[in-house]
């Protein structure tokens, strides 16, 4: 993660100011960047006619923009270029919070909600560098080893960049918050940590034929 | 997971028919249910004015409905009851797919996209049973041990149920699909499995005071 924007605090807007559980809200750019950098998936909300549609895709970051990509001809890419508002939400799940009362059960999580309109990354050098950064998110340094996109592949792929400007993070961490009168109840309370773990790599069987 | 609907196939609609990578589309109710049952989080897309908003929350299932809950006074719960269309997307990440070409890198995943309008679960017995099912998703049998919601907590919590009707699943699994002319390139190709793993439970430190 770059540190160029550490210390930067984004200005909350009516759409990104955390209302409920406002103590969980964060507007620090570094905190927002770290969540985007760690997440293998984000969810893009856009309008298709009058219907909100939510589609998962891999987010990555270059500087102060959140990038996504897709087939140039896909509905998501076309709708996102129509000029309407869109929302990108990134969520990392850190654990189940088990309380003594049913009501205080919760989830530990880190999330980012970002509003905006993306720009199309069309200049070839910038687009190639952006796609290299995506491959390097999957495995650092990998873009130097994989066969780069040819002209046809590059054309078939659209890269969109959202400014990380109207955005906020929301974080819950730590133990349950039971009511004082429930603390003596004979039920286990605490956190079951959850994390996305990489397993043993599975080589492509086609390589062994 | 109940098996009452195994074998049921949902009718694709123009909104749920998989267009891109259509071979990844699935309309089998049991496949859709299994993804919802496993997921700790879903993303709800709804309209706030003309802006699509995407919010993460825990999904669970009772029969053929996907349930969510929230503070009765929250924006999400209020907007979802306004009568407009909404979209619920559930995504499980199963692995990074590392190809020989940058273009064929991918993600193994299982996702569900569901369109519809939720109903408010308001009848007390049904609402309590629904919230018990949520606690039991976190830890089977736990609803019998945790202190049940009192009248005030029950009133402060809204439960919404989406019919699992206009829904489809999309699944990618298996190795990369490189082009034949790239198979000889000297770059490792295969899958790095990813899974959400539970760690050692951390007891609430407040219990030890």
Which architecture of chain A would the CATH scheme give at its second level?
Answer: Roll
Note the overall shape of chain A: globular
Average of pLDDT of chain A: 93
CATH third-level topology of chain A = Pnp Oxidase, Chain A
Number of separate domains of chain A = 1
Order of helices and strands of chain A: EHEEEEHEEEHHEEEE
Organism (chains A, B): Azospirillum thermophilum
Protein name (chains A, B): Pyridoxamine 5'-phosphate oxidase family protein
Describe this structure in words.
The structure is a homodimer of 209-residue chains. Helices cover 18% and strands 37% of the residues of chain A. With 209 residues, chain A is of the alpha+beta class. In chain A, a hairpin with a 2-residue loop joins strand 4 (60-62) and strand 5. The radius of gyration of chain A is 20 Å and the shape is globular. The two termini of chain A are 39 Å apart. Chains A and B meet through strand 2, strand 3, strand 6, strand 7 and helix 3 of A and strand 2, strand 3, strand 6, strand 7 and helix 3 of B. Strand 11 (190-198) of chain A pairs antiparallel with strand 12 (202-203) of chain B, so a sheet runs across the interface.
């Amino acid at each position: 993660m770059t540190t160029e924007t550490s210390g930067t605090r984004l200005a909350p807007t009516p759409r990104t100011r955390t209302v409920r559980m406002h103590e969980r809200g964060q507007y620090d750019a570094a905190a927002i960047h770290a969540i985007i950098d760690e997440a293998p998936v984000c969810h893009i909300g856009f309008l298709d006619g009058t219907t909100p549609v939510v589609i998962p895709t891999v987010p990555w970051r270059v500087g102060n923009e959140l990038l996504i990509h897709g087939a140039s001809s896909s509905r998501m890419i076309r709708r996102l270029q129509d000029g309407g508002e869109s929302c990108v939400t990134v969520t990392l799940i850190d654990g189940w919070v088990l309380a003594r009362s049913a009501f205080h059960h919760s989830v530990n999580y880190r999330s980012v909600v970002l509003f905006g309109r993306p720009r199309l990354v069309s200049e070839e050098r910038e687009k190639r560098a952006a796609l290299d950064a995506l491959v390097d998110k999957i495995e650092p340094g990998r873009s130097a080893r994989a066969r780069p996109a040819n002209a046809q592949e590059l054309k078939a792929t659209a890269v969109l960049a959202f400014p990380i400007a109207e955005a906020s993070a929301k974080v819950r961490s730590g133990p349950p918050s039971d009511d004082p009168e429930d603390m003596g109840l004979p039920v286990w309370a605490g956190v079951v940590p959850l994390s996305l773990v990489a397993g043993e790599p599975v080589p492509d069987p086609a390589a062994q034929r």
